Amino acid sequence: MRQVIFLFIGILFGIVMFKSEAASWFRIYEMFQFKSFHMYGIIGSALALGVVMIQLIKRYQLKSAFGEPIVIPDKTKSFYRYSLGGIIFGLGWGLSGACPGPIFTLLGAGFLPIAVVLVFAVVGTWIYGLLMDKLPH
Amino acid sequence: MEWIFNPWPWYVGGLLLALILFLLLFFGKSFGMSSNLRTLCTICGAGKNTEFFKFDWKTQQWNLLVAAGAIIGGWIAANFLSTDPSVLIHEDTIAKLNQLNIKSAGTAYLPEELFGLDNFLKPKIFASLAFGGLLVGFGARYAGGCTSGHAISGLSNLQLVSLYAVIGFFIGGLFMNHFLLPYIL
């Protein structure tokens, strides 16, 4: 039952993505044209608050709601996978104008053709799983 | 209350995104939406012959609930919290998109020319959406995360590798936007 909290966090996330227009193809296009501060403002302010928040969590060793220490695992060190994977993701982001979170939001907002992007994003993930041993990481 | 129905300014979006990051950490999880794509592969049976997808997907149930919530949230926002969903982008951007035959710029939430029910099945458009999805799914997993996992979560935790990923996102996005999209649209 306590899992239901994640549904509510998701609902808040979906509303924020739609209402802040971060789920709009037009905002992503405009961001890559450097014509508006909007998307940089959203990501930048979330990031600035996030950095402070995580520093405070670490310094005061805050516990989670379930009384366990909050552990934020470090990502594995590598250059190739992050930069090459990042570039491939960026090409897709620039084309479809949607990253994985907004894909779900747009589906709910009634833009059914986004299902094409979702289905092929699952296929793309599957292809990665099949090829991962052959890729530089 | 009027402001709720208008598009939310960037600082409201950023503040609430940080709140979501906090809530997920507070409930013992981390923020990353593209992991759900891997979980969906596993549910579809990808674990039968590929090690990467062999895991108990029920351990990721919480994240699928976040994704389900994102769908419901999108439905609520579009149907009950918006009067006019038009996205008022910069007039230069509207002019540029008009030149590329995206006439719905400034009057819609998504370009009608790509996501309209009458248009998305046109072979070129369908192929573009499908290819975009493939790159998003492949790239996110190769890079170990997407915008939420790297640009918000990873950078907030001062992970250098997330900076490599985010720089990659922008190299790819800028290249698509300036050099490929004009030929695709």
What does this structure look like?
The complex is a heterodimer of chains A (137) and B (185). By secondary structure, chain A is mostly helical. Chain A has 6 helices and no strands. Chain B has 185 residues and is mostly helical. Chain B folds into 2 domains: 1-83, no CATH class; 116-185. Helices cover 64% and strands 0% of the residues of chain B. Chain B contains 9 helices and no strands. Chain B has helices at residues 2-5, 10-26, 35-43, 61-80, 91-99, 112-115, 123-142, 147-156, 160-184. In chain B, helix 8 runs antiparallel to helix 9. The longest helix of chain B has 25 residues, at 160-184.
Give short descriptive properties of this protein.
heterodimer, A: 137 residues, mainly alpha, 0% strand, globular, B: 185 residues, 2 domains, 9 helices
Brief sketch in words of this structure:
With 137 residues, chain A is mainly α. Chain A is built from six helices and no strands.
